[in-house]
Specification:
alpha+beta; about 20% strand; about 40% helix; about 450 residues
Amino acid sequence: MRFSNVVLAVALAIGLAIPTATFAAQEELPAPQPTPAPAPKAAPAPARKPSTKAPTAAPSGRIAPAPIPFPIPGPGFIPRPGFVPVPPGVPPLPPVPRRLAAGDASRADRRERLRALGNQVFTALAAPDAESGAAPLLDISKLNAGLKPLVVEMLGGADYVESLRIGFDPQGTDFAADRLRLTADAVLRRTAWADAPSRANGTVNAQITTSDTGKPVAVVDGQLRIETSTVALANYAIAQYKAKRARQANETSVAPAPAPAAGPAPAPLPAPKDKNGADEILAQMLDEKFATIDRLESLDDVADLLTAVSGLRLTAVSQRIEQLREQARSAEDAETRRNFETQLAAVRADRDKLFDIRPAIERGPDGRARLISLGMVGSELFPGAEMREMEVRLLENEVSIAAAGALTRYVELYPLVKPVLMNVLVRIQNSDPRALDALRTIINGALGTR
């Protein structure tokens, strides 16, 4: 079980509240009006009101024009060349059918759910307290007292949690200086992967500081140690991966949109650009590999699987490199060739990062695996996120992780979201039921337990 759930909840609340507020502000803006056409030099005659009477003779003997049987566009309307108003009673043209690409419907549904969740979070967490005029102050002891029951409930309640100590360290936490230290120690009666008791303890340190270039940077480091069955945890991870791939397969099997009643079928939309086809190649390889695995039985099985996965990752990237090299050589024009060469350079850079991870297996006198360790030093996870150091150690009944990194992207937005973050912590401190319900929704959704 993770003990960074509260930090995850805060980050998700910030990430969802700010965009939601921006979207709401955009929706309240008036729609831009088209620029009116310049007035003619001669003053136009006043517009006549449509009449339902029959045409009558004008004083000059001319016949008055018949009334127009459909509305006239309002002022400010600029017709396009060839514009003809549609009389009433004529059915509108059917919309141009769009053949949805695989997964479009599910992505749209997820965006809508995130938008609704963002509105809920912004209302429950970011809205100011109308009852008090001044901003309430944080009390670390009260904050820790409000944090504990929330985390216990998210870990499954008293049926799962035997004891828990979690909170911000008063010596290492100074919210005014943008520095925090969060510690946790828990004894679990059982977990999602094992009925036997487990124990976990961890520490997270984070600070907003300034780099040598004068730009803001978020420095984060942490340690996590879990006393549990490593083999059972690995089997649980495999089952979760298979379930995730099954959901993805269901999402990509969305039925295509029905063809229009009349007229030729529209041409299918072009496939989106594949930034790194090695990911899909690797996913297919992993599917084939995990299909042959029913259950791991020992730490040696875990070592064999990790070694195989490392080899598959390198093989997948190598295959993608060969594909892009061939596509670049056979390109028909210079622009297409440059496009493939750009992708090739990116995939090669990803291939080089694979060597940043150094796996090692220690064996006992009997030849059986006793320790599996994975080390990483100075690797960029993605632009703006640097993993300065990481070490993962797997023993038969213990998993430990130590990591340190830095985030340089989007940190300049922290002063904007800090008031929201402080308000979230105050609501946790005061055991605000709306805030707690919103945090439960966020974390349960992130962990897939809702």
